[in-house]
Amino acid sequence: SFLFRLFPLREHGMNWRARPLTCQEIQAFRKSKEVMDRFLRAYKLMLGFYGINLVNEETGELQRAENWRERFENLNRFSHNNLRITRILKCLGEMGYEDYQVHLVKFFLTETLVEETLPNVKRSALDYFLFTVRSKEKRRELIHYAWQHFKPQSSFVWGPHDKLQKYR
């Protein structure tokens, strides 16, 4: 499928005919400027589809695009987008864009828990998006961020409350 070619992984996806990537292929991709430029273009294209802009290529910082309301409506209505976002997040990690993962997950946590603009993405953000983040430390920070904004806090099941309270 279209998304498999743009965001390949080392695991089987929904398309059973698609062959997972090997570690050697990933290393070759990461060494190729052309492949990485194309990957970044594909990432920006998909962000645009979801109503998000990449504002800083160095850091991976994101913000809402001008058409965010209309695009968020689409995200809320069609849950298959959540699988695609999970795939994109995993691929960002494979391709060495771990900071991009953090920014994208935080963007969705903010929109679902703080701004409450994406209620139908909230479960995927907490159950799947969060756990694609490769850095254990960054993942902990994001879980703490989610816990701080989750309502009611007592129902938060993505981390032990005693540790979350002490987290700095």
TrEMBL record:
GO MF terms held by the record: opioid growth factor receptor activity
GO cellular component annotations of the record: membrane
Cited InterPro entries: OGF_rcpt, OGFr
Residues in Opioid growth factor receptor (OGFr) conserved domain copies: 3-165
PANTHER family: OPIOID GROWTH FACTOR RECEPTOR, OPIOID GROWTH FACTOR RECEPTOR OGFR ZETA-TYPE OPIOID RECEPTOR
Similarity comment: family membership: Belongs to the opioid growth factor receptor family.
Protein name in the entry: OGFR factor
